[in-house]
Amino acid sequence: MSDPKDKGYRIIRLVNGERLIAKISGSTKQKMVLTRPMTVRGMTANGGVTGVSREYLVLQDWLEHSDDINVKVPTNQVLTISKPDDFITEAYEAQKDYLDTGNANPKMENYPDDLTLKDLFSGEMPGDGETMEGEELQEFLNNLVDSIIHKATSNLEDEDWIEEDQDRDREDWGNDPNDWSPYPDDYS
Length: 188
Hints:
By secondary structure, the protein is α+β, with helices and mostly antiparallel strands. The protein is 22% helix and 26% strand. The chain has a domain at 9-101: SH3 type barrels (Roll). The protein has helices at 86-101, 117-122, 134-153; strands at residues 9-14, 19-27, 31-45, 54-61, 70-74, 78-82. The radius of gyration is 24 Å and the shape is elongated.
């Protein structure tokens, strides 16, 4: 019995280590036909000032700079084939939609439902009728980044940390976050 949620997408690991997601639309003993293949990569972004790292899933068109949507891959280059989970399936469909339409509409709190990434990068916010460009957009983005950094570091202003009070003779000195200055300027 077939799974109604199975859309035919597969995760394909190639012998060179690349991971792809695609629909296998045909195969012979020598080749398989992949439709809309995308590379699957995980990325970790360091937390910077906040110290909180985040992991991101990156899907990139494997046939970039081509109008083709199908490619034949030699079967001797395929190491494994597996079914993707629901998360990667949804991400793959969203990425295909974005590549086809240029419209990415993530559900983000505190933003209108009709905000798209295209709106954000064009500087136009739905409902305000104004478009920010050039220096005005740059100033807006700088202020946004500054406010994020200020929010992340505002709790540090009240913290009393005195380097001379640190017990550097402790056997495990340096392994505790409190052994280090909370002030970013101390590290420049």
